[in-house]
Amino acid sequence: MKLIFLDFDGVLHPNFCQEEHYFSRTGYLMAALDGFKHDVEVIISSSWRFHWPADVLLQKLPASLAPLVVGFTPEVDPGRHQRYREIHAYLKFRRGHADWRALDDADNEFPKGCRELIRCEGRTGLDDSTVARLRLWLKGA
Question: Whole-prediction pTM value?
């Protein structure tokens, strides 16, 4: 099973967009996952998880994405590379090696050169380039 740690702002929609544009880039993610949905689990790493209970947050997600979500990263003490540390806290809880990627626009939340990070351009969110990188990983290339 492959794990995708998913940020929202700057990934599923552009940063600082109007509410009516929330999740406007979800179609890119779903296109990337086409043919792989049974081999992938999605874990929410977005800071949105601090603002809404899990059930409410899942209701906010597009119907195509919500069923793929299996969990949320835990909160960790503030500090350097916090998102990366949250992901590792989740992986430790899971107790096993995992093949994972993070879809995120905040590369400062990860160690420099983190090969698991698929960085999105925050002004646009997911695009053809990030979808291509995600699909290469999903194919095992």
Answer: 0.96
